[in-house]
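Biotin synthase
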Amino acid sequence: MILMVSSLEPGQILKLNRNELQALITCKDNKVIQAMYHHAESITQRFFGNKIYLRGIVEFSNECEKNCKYCGVRRSVKSVKRYCMDKEEILKCSDVVYNNGYGTFMLQSGEITTPERLEWLEDVVRSIKKRSRELESKTFNRPLSECKGLQIALSVGELSSENYQRLYDAGARRYLLRIESSNPKLYAKLHPKDHHWEVRHQCLLDLKRIGYQTGTGILIGVPYQTSWDIADDILYLDRLGAHMIGMGPYVYQSNTPIGNYWKLTVGKTIKTEEDQKNYHQYLKDLTIRVYALTRIVMGYANIAATTALIALAPNARQEALVSGCNLVMPIITPDEFRKEYSLYKGKSEVVAHRENLIKLIHSIGKEPVFFEWGDAISHPMENKK
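Structure:
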């Protein structure tokens, strides 16, 4: 195994090929696995030191036109109470994000593509930018002209290139759109016939062309996926040149076609609490291994330790943050809305308070970074406000 070669330098990026990646994804040799984690951490240290960047997320709406077969807020799920926060509620959340020192505010929702939603979202983005700059001026007694305010990220689905440009012009500079799988055939199994892999891929190309710091990622351990698929996914992320990686484990969600399939296949083998614990351990380990390999191949991308990890094990995020991840995205959606935005069964219902987050990060010998945007190294954003 290449990771066991004595001449390997700490922090050295490795352009592993498909066969090497698949072998490492399925490797059962604990020495190799630990070498993988340690090397991923050495690369993280090379580019970021002990810094952990923070992004505050508000899930402002669970309304969605899409019907993705794995998603708990898919269009056809009738048991979910739909909501959309109003502008003032979102602005109050932006105050919370800023006052807690989270440099970036991510607005996340289901996909709604009406002209009215786009116009409203443009106004929200402009208002957040203006309000956070004013708050910075007041907090630090700086001239408004010197204040950047919050960096604004969006995760609102597939839009036209024109609409991505409009949101960029309004002030958004980051966008997260998960490819879910680089394999069009697997993508087709996870989505209805009117959802197309080529459209999503083109959206990512459009986002990069416009100038967004572009984030994407995959579902790890989803039904029908193979280790070869995951190897191809890592290579896809590298070819795309994604600036941010947001990927996480597939966690069973009831009332969905993929959830039903999982229950009839994997789920039927889980009969005891011990079985459940072992499955969660397997999925956690696979997810962290994919994080590590992505870091080893891509080097300087921002890689998030996703919230979904908490559904698998209480300490899973800590493990991820010493195995390639350098980013945490605490959810600050008000509790009254959070219960209706359940993408993952077992997803923590408690907002990750600043003090607890600091303790978590300090417990692994790292430092949270406050009041910084934490831009991707490959995509400097100086002087862009």
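The two ends are 46 Å apart (CA to CA).
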